[in-house]
Fold:
Amino acid sequence: MNTTNEYREPASRGNGMRVGLIVAVVAVLAIVAAFAFGLIDVNQTRETKLPEVAVEGGQAPAFDVDTAKVDVDTKTTDITVPKVEVGTTKEEIKVPTVDVQKAN
Structure:
């Protein structure tokens, strides 16, 4: 039995949904990154074939759209800009390298 006068609120359901959403987003980003870096290679092994469908009649919709006119331009004005001089030197350091072989 809890003998202290400390009150604890029950766990919120929103936190569990937030964690689940973050895990899902990280998983999707990891899969996209794997494809982008060539770690996953997908090859098609069979051609697709669409079903034969007969369509008669019909009409495509028509739209009349009026949009706003936007003009983007530049103008010259004077502003005060601080002048900072920074010097650099060259030093030799060891940096890590990574070699990735694309999936075949």
